[in-house]
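Long-time lurker, first post. I've been practising inverse folding by hand and with some scripts of my own, and I keep getting stuck on stretches where the structure tokens seem ambiguous. Below is the full token string for one chain I'm working on. Before anyone asks, I'm not after the true native sequence, just a reasonable design that respects the backbone. If someone could post their per-position residues I'd love to compare against what I wrote down in my notebook.
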């Protein structure tokens, strides 16, 4: 009997010890193995948060590595679950006044159809000091002014090159899922953002969080805190050839005039600035000023007008054509088929040689010269300049026909000879043509992307400049440079004869669409080839030439040149 009792005591003790060990083991597992996860889960149940970065993507950099994207700025942030029902209408009225958004539209942004609150979101970026102070003053629960990192700056530049991001559509979502990837909240929709979306994706964002009580109300006296992200950053940065300072100068000079400006390095073709106007809001919060605001006019095609005459002048000099030295311009040119081509100067320029014809931008002279050269020779030299197709290193573009005319039809050749029907060029191509003349006759290929690099600067992919071929002899290039300098000093561009460092350039006034000025500066040792296109202007020697002058004067100040 006693033995049985001792045995029962032993078994009970053993079972008790085993139970204690199991409980201790579970506690140890929860604390040591799952402790961090459970703590994080408990914290998330008592915090509300929003990503510090509105779009967690790699940066787009200028040529010196300065970010063109990402700026910390006051933002209007809504935490729908923290809004109090009794203050709903007052809060909506306040938000409507602050953002100029209809109250019902705001209501739909904040609550689902079943009345449940949506996730925290940014309602407006770039709050002014007065707006931010107003948010703090009214102190509505769930409505805050927070300093978040916006993808785009308030005074953003190079919008059309950089592009913008947006929510993925169904097709884009499917592509991510097919690749076994999670669908991001934002994808590139245009520009560099779209072309390099795959490498820009993957940045992890810290969270900006606030502690709340069991009913979801913000605890008084508790400040916002930044919770670091534990996800690996797999994004990369894209470095452009654009110089941020040059870009700002160009955009300031272009202002609100509809058009575009491109600056090329004459030696290697690097695009140092590329502006298009009017601009648009990359956050898509404000409607653009015009329907074509999203069109990148720097890369788009327009009749080049009289600037195309330089292709004919090059062909004539290189081919040793017996150039007219005293062709008479009475203000028009009568073709063999009876058609009359008018000169822009109705009184006529009188007798002219090639230099005078370039300085005066005389249509009769170049219609006559086009007839001598023939359409095929014009096409040949356009191809030598690289004008047959637009190519930008690091920025693939759909190919469009730039020159399309019948070489056997005299009227078609006449139109192309003065840069009208049959030829369309972009500001990039116009700057490219001017760079060839300015650098002594070597073709350059425009480049806008230098490299893709990791956050620590490690190069992942490079886009080197391309060695050019000779388009014309150095002698021909020197002759054309002299003619273009004379055009600025005494010809159709004499309004800007006092530009810093001097300039060589050519005006263009299309009969159909826009006015141009393309040139190079300084005259001694040219550095920049600049093309200015204005959609609505009086003449190439007016609006675009004055924009050119302002740009070069500011570049001289920036670079400290004499």
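-- Answer (accepted) --
I ran through it position by position. Result:
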């Amino acid at each position: 009997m006693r033995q049985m009792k001792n045995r029962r005591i032993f078994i009970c003790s053993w079972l008790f010890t085993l139970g204690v060990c199991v409980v201790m083991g579970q506690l140890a597992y929860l604390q040591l193995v799952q402790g961090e996860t459970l703590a994080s889960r408990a914290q998330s149940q008592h915090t509300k948060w929003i990503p510090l970065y509105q779009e967690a993507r790699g940066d787009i950099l200028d040529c010196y590595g300065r970010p063109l994207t990402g700026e910390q700025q006051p933002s209007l942030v809504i935490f729908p679950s923290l809004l109090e029902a009794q203050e709903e209408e007052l809060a909506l009225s306040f938000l409507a006044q602050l953002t100029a958004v209809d109250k019902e539209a705001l209501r739909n942004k904040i609550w689902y159809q079943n009345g449940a609150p949506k996730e925290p979101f940014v309602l407006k970026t770039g709050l002014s000091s007065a707006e931010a102070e107003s948010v703090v003053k009214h102190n509505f629960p769930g409505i805050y002014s927070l300093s978040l990192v916006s993808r785009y700056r308030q005074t953003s530049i190079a919008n059309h090159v950089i592009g913008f991001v947006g929510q993925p559509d169904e097709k884009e979502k499917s592509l991510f899922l097919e690749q076994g990837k999670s669908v991001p909240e934002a994808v590139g929709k245009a520009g560099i953002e779209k072309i390099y979306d795959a490498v820009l994706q993957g940045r992890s964002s810290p969270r900006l969080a606030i502690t709340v009580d069991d009913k979801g109300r913000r605890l008084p006296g508790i400040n916002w805190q930044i919770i670091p992200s534990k996800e690996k950053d797999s994004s990369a940065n894209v470095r452009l050839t654009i110089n941020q300072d040059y870009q700002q100068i160009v955009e300031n000079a272009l202002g609100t005039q509809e058009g575009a400006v491109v600056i090329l390095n004459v030696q290697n073709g690097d695009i140092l600035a590329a502006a298009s106007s009017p601009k648009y809001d990359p956050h898509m919060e404000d409607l653009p000023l015009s329907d074509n605001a999203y069109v990148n006019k720097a890369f788009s095609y327009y009749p080049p007008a009289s600037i195309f005459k330089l292709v004919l002048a090059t062909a004539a000099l290189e081919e040793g054509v017996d150039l007219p030295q005293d062709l008479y311009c009475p203000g028009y040119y009568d073709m063999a088929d009876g058609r009359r081509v008018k000169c822009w100067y109705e009184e006529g320029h009188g007798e002219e040689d090639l230099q005078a014809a370039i300085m005066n931008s005389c249509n009769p002279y170049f219609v006559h010269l086009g007839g001598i050269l023939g359409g095929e020779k014009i096409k040949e030299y356009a191809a030598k300049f690289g004008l047959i197709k637009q190519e930008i290193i690091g920025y693939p573009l759909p190919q469009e026909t730039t020159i399309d005319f019948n070489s056997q039809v005299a009227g078609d050749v006449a139109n192309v000879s003065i840069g009208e029907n049959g030829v369309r060029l972009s500001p990039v191509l116009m700057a490219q043509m001017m760079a060839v003349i300015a650098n002594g006759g070597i073709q350059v290929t425009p480049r806008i992307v230098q490299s893709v690099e990791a956050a620590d600067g490690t190069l992942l992919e490079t886009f080197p400049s391309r060695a050019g071929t000779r388009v014309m002899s150095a002698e021909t290039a020197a002759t054309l440079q002299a003619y273009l300098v004379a055009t600025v000093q005494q010809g159709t561009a004499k309004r800007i004869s006092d530009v810093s460092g001097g300039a060589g350039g050519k005006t263009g006034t299309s009969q159909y669409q826009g006015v141009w000025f393309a040139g190079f500066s300084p005259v001694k040792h040219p550095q920049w080839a600049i093309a200015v296109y204005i959609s609505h202007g009086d003449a190439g020697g007016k609006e675009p030439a004055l924009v050119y002058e302002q740009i070069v004067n500011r570049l001289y100040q920036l670079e400290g040149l004499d």
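A couple of notes from the structure itself: The first strand starts at residue 47 and ends at 51. The CA atoms of residues 84 and 141 lie 7 Å apart. Happy to go over any region you disagree with.
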